[in-house]
């Protein structure tokens, strides 16, 4: 019979190879990047999520700001254990899986519910599932690795590992308000970090601007166009998109659909 091994009745099996697509979702603190990543996680088949915050050094190794004499969790040089994150991404790219020893502490943090319309999610879920089936029939399994983080576009090796690069741009005043409304962040050790007075204006926002100075023209994180330093960066502005997070999910899925078709 056609499609069988000669002289046997065992159907020939197509070897399925795995291709990992790493999607970077960057932006400032409280820009909605983790919320977007979790919505995409529910939509995309064969998907996993990685939180850059899980790669912060132990609390006792976080540097002290030289001017304000408080721990600086935001300076790009010391806020992330870059070699550990780079190694982790290489492992995910090679295996399509989260290493079994990895432990995330994201679940300890406050989870703000920002829903999207079920019809938006279901429409894209069906589209990506159909695309996955078509790929697998041709012998390729796509795994989506969603990486969210506030310093995604600072380290060259991390940037180079990203197949899709998305940035959520939210104005200063909105970021400051959202950060103030948060009750704190849990560290990997389980401790609760609360911002000292004026921490956003003195530490968080200046570090964000400095870390993205080369990403946007003139170092303008509020209005500058993306530079060539981060190729193919897609900038999404949640406050300028109709229907808020629903619109951002829709636009992000369009970006991922386009990337999939170019593979």
Could you provide a short overview of the structure?
This protein has helices at 33-43, 76-79, 82-95, 118-137, 156-161, 172-181, 199-211, 244-262, and strands spanning 17-27, 47-51, 140-149, 164-168, 185-186, 192-193, 233-236. It has 263 residues and is of the alpha/beta class. Keywords: Hydrolase.
**How many strand units?**
7
Examine the coordinates and then state which fold CATH places here, giving the name of the CATH topology: Rossmann fold
CATH superfamily: P-loop containing nucleotide triphosphate hydrolases
Separate helix tally: 8
How far do the termini sit from each other? 33 Å
Order of strands in the sheet with most strands: 2-3-1-4-7
Overall SS class: alpha/beta
The largest pleated sheet is described as:
5 strands, parallel
How would you characterize the overall build of this protein?
This protein is α/β, with parallel strands linked by helices. It has one domain: P-loop containing nucleotide triphosphate hydrolases (Rossmann fold), CATH 3.40.50.300. Helix content is 37%, strand content 15%. The protein is built from eight helices and seven strands. The protein starts with 16 loop residues before the first strand and ends with a helix. The N terminus is likely disordered.
């Amino acid at each position: 019979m056609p499609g069988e091994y000669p002289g046997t009745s065992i159907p020939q099996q197509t070897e399925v190879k795995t291709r990992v697509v790493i999607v970077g979702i960057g932006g400032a603190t409280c820009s909605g990047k983790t919320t977007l990543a979790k919505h995409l996680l529910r939509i995309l088949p064969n998907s996993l999520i990685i939180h850059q915050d899980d790669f912060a050094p132990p609390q006792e190794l976080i540097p002290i700001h030289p001017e304000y004499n408080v721990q600086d969790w935001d300076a790009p040089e010391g806020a992330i254990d870059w070699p550990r994150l780079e190694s982790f991404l290489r492992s995910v790219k090679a295996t399509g899986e989260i290493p079994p020893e990895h432990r995330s502490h994201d679940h300890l943090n406050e989870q703000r519910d920002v829903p999207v319309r079920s019809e938006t999610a279901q429409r894209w879920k069906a589209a990506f599932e159909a695309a996955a089936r078509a790929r697998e029939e041709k012998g390729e399994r796509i795994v989506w690795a969603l990486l969210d983080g506030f310093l995604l576009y600072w380290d060259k090796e991390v940037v180079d590992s990203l197949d899709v690069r998305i940035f959520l741009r939210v104005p200063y005043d909105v970021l400051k308000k959202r950060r103030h409304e948060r009750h704190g962040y849990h560290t990997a050790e389980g401790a609760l970090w609360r911002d000292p007075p004026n921490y956003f204006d003195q530490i968080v926002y200046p570090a964000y601007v400095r870390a993205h100075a080369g990403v946007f023209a003139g170092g303008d994180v509020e209005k500058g166009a993306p530079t060539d330093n981060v190729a193919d960066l897609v900038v999404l502005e949640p406050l300028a998109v109709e229907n808020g997070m629903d619109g951002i999910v829709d636009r992000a899925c369009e970006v991922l659909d386009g990337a999939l078709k170019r593979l």
